[in-house]
Amino acid sequence: MKLAMIYSFLKQDLAKIEDAVNETIQSENPVLREASGQLLHAGGKRIRPVFVLLAGKFGDYNLERMKAVAVSLELIHTASLVHDDVIDEAELRRGQPTIKSKWDNRIAMYTGDYIFARSLENLSTLDNPRAHQILAKTMVELCLGEIDQIQDKYTVEQNFRNYLRRIKRKTAILIAASCRLGAIAANATKETELALYRYGYFVGMSYQIIDDVLDFTASEKDLGKPAGSDLLHGNITLPVLFSMEDKEFKQQLVDMFKSEEELTSADIEPLLEKIQSNGSIERSLEVSDQYLSKAYQSLSELPNLRAKQTLKGIAKYIGKRRA
């Protein structure tokens, strides 16, 4: 089953959010207008708006209020990817040239800033100071996560705790905020809000772990970028951490990173083969499953609505996705 089938009953509301996203990024400046649309028009799952809408179903669901939150969160996610592509010197995203590739780093950085600003402007239509505070704190954590990632690049002396903190800030906290802010916009109870936040956090952790696994197991066509890109850019993900328990593997990685500026896909191929066969993929998926179990537990605290079954279905899909 495709992911969109799980939440197909939200189709009309999601179409309105998509229109609002495109409207929000419009600019009189032609470069800014085209660059802002470059990544958004390349596709994407729009999973954060889905979490906002589903969370809103546990309270007083009002599409205009949901839209204010959903559009802002999708734009924050998009802006962070634009900046990511500059840091990672990525040429492709979702199978399309990145903004930094089509224009340059300066255009990409200011485009990302512009999308961030539009996101905040859009959320200002929601009269709820607590929602703004939570979003601001989420953005601070995102920035800290990016700094963590930059500092940890090409560094083999890191551990499980470093990795979990990094993916929490990089991915999980924005999905958790999507669930929490959807609940707040719908005036859901505090207990419901926190249960949804926990669900989003655990699902987000699982989502990123599986993303990191797919970097080694999926095809370039499915990824929209070359396989092994994370390792090529010096990012130590969970399969690599497990693989580094083998001293020989770790030494190979240390030697390879000494030439970080000249690394090519061919250089990392021997390590990719080891990661794919040494059990680190299976161990990583087990950790992902542990987070999914906690997500299911969080859902048990919520009333039995259709949205609850849908959230469960999304978690199940995330656990099984292989592309």
UniProtKB/TrEMBL annotation:
What are the protein's UniProt keywords? Magnesium, Metal-binding, Transferase
Listed cofactors:
Mg(2+)
In terms of Gene3D superfamilies, this protein maps to:
Farnesyl Diphosphate Synthase
CDD domains for this protein? Trans_IPPS_HT
InterPro entries cross-referenced by the UniProt entry: GerC3_HepT (IPR014119), Isoprenoid_synthase_dom_sf (IPR008949), Polyprenyl_synt (IPR000092), Polyprenyl_synt_CS (IPR033749)
**Parts of the chain that traverse the membrane:** none
NCBIfam families on file: GerC3_HepT
Q: Which family does it belong to?
A: Belongs to the FPP/GGPP synthase family.
Output this protein's name. Heptaprenyl diphosphate synthase component II
Give the source species: Halobacillus amylolyticus
For this protein's source organism, the top of the classification is: Bacteria, Bacillati, Bacillota, Bacilli, Bacillales
